[in-house]
Amino acid sequence: MRSPVPDLIHGLRCLSSILSKAENHCGNRKIDPDALLKARLYPDMFNLTRNVTTACDSAKFTAARLSQAEPPRYEDNEASFAELRGRIAKTIAFLETIPDAAFAAAEIRDLAVPLSPEGTARNGRTYLIRFGLPNFYFHLATAYNILRHNGVPLGKRDFLWAS
Amino acid sequence: MRSPVPDLIHGLRCLSSILSKAENHCGNRKIDPDALLKARLYPDMFNLTRNVTTACDSAKFTAARLSQAEPPRYEDNEASFAELRGRIAKTIAFLETIPDAAFAAAEIRDLAVPLSPEGTARNGRTYLIRFGLPNFYFHLATAYNILRHNGVPLGKRDFLWAS
Fold it and tell me: Cβ separation of B161 and A115 shorter than 8 Å?
């Protein structure tokens, strides 16, 4: 399997850039950062902070499980935009330690696919395309949607391409 | 390049299933379907209907541009949950006409990547992984988020696996 690390890092860099724009927006408009960091689209959905840490963990576990690397543990105690960008940076630094060759056998290695119905093929390829990537993009898009819903000026280009 | 058609069809089937649940929710709670079909997260964002048609078009154009198939034109006149599921079904039927072999040369074929900064590699692989798939998942996630924001009972399993 081709390493998914470049795609995961690309998405995390877009997220980091989006968070910087949100933080600047708070500064410009005298908005308490917590108004965005703790915002959510519905009471039982994750807030912005947890969508960011979950996107990081989705990238970390996707790469670690496929490459059989040992994933680092993080404490989930981020409480500011700067700390969330730090979490992203730590995650990227971990991803960068995994060599492309570590994914060589991932496609066909036996791997359970979270939340999947019975009968789903149990291997690295299914894990990546039916869980790892869609779940990663889900949390990136939800972080973006929470910020747009709260008036932060962002566009599709910010979601697709870090600036 | 491996055909992206199975992944696109899988995502569209999840979306169709989510729309059925939303329609049932309207029936159960005496909600005017337009309250959901025209809902959006912010005034200048797409509403639910347009996120669904855009997800369909994202799948259609991603597959068509990579395989050099001629994409069908649709009129964007869907006004009900049933019509949106019809749009999804038409899109899936088109995707199913594209043979795997049509993607054989797609990876390295010259292809511009929408919204990309100058210097971005211009080829089919970059088109798929930096625009086609992230943009497709963005509109699936935003459709899901609009419905969750409006109280439709859905979970991550609905996003990942059609039921």
Answer: yes
Cβ atoms A124, A107 nearer than 8 A: yes
Q: Which amino acid is present at A73?
A: R
Query: Which B positions 39-58 lie with beta carbon below 8 A of chain A?
Result: 41-42, 45
Banded pLDDT at A44 (limits 50, 70, 90):
very high
pTM of the model: 0.98
d(CA B43, CA B48): 12
Block residue for tokens 């079904």: B89
How big is chain B by its Cα radius of gyration, in Å?
16
Q: Which residue has the tokens 């006004």?
A: B79
**Stretch B12-19: mean pLDDT:** 98
**Residues 113-142 (A) with a CB less than 8 A from some CB of B:** 115-117, 129-131, 133-135, 137-138, 140-142
Beta-carbon neighbour count of residue A130 at 10 Å? 22
